[in-house]
Amino acid sequence: MNFTEIAWNIFNQSIEDYHVHDNVNTLINNPYEKDSLERILYAKNWIDTVQWHLEDIIRDENINPTEALQLKRTIDQSNQKRTDLVEFIDSWFLKKYESIIPESDAKINTETPAWAVDRLSILALKIYHMSLEANRESASEEHRLNCQEKLNVLLMQKEDLSTSINQLLTDIENGNVKMKVYKQMKMYNDESLNPILYQKGQK
Question: What InterPro entries would the database entry show (predicted)?
Answer without folding.
Answer: DUF4254
